[in-house]
Amino acid sequence: MLGPGDQTVPRAELWGAINIITRLHRGVGARIAIYAACVVHGTNNQLKLEKGRNGDLWSIFFKIMEMRSADIGINKVASHLEEIGKEAARSGFAAIT
């Protein structure tokens, strides 16, 4: 699924997180694995990011997070297909689509 604007790794990863979070009930917690370190570490820099290059997506991300009542964990992964990801998919805790 292509997101809006330029197609870069950080935008794609952020757009993916936005799509996952919007499909979860606001009271359901989740852990999201993201490759782009700038997205993982960026979640702590709201004001700077909303004014930056990908501010359109960061504004959406932070607005969605404000409406949630359950925690969303965002973790850096070296690859989306690390062994733990494969095990989660085999166990039915995640899907690779």
Model description:
The protein is mainly α and about 100 residues long. The chain contains five helices and two strands; from the N terminus they run αβαααβα. The chain has helices at about 10-20, 35-40, 45-50, 55-65, 85-90, and strands at about 30-35, 70-75. It has a two-stranded parallel sheet with strand order 1-2. Helix 1 packs parallel to helix 4 (about 55-65). The protein is globular, with a radius of gyration of 13 Å.
Q: Tell me about the largest β-sheet.
A: 2 strands, parallel
Structural class: mainly alpha
List the helices and strands in order: HEHHHEH
> Uncertain runs with pLDDT below 50, 5 residues or more?
none
Count of β-strands: 2
- Mean pLDDT metric: 81
Radius of gyration: 13 Å
**C-alpha termini separation:** 10 Å
- State the strand order across the main sheet: 1-2
Helical residue percent? 40-55%
Notable characteristics:
97 residues, two-stranded parallel sheet, mainly alpha, 5 helices, globular
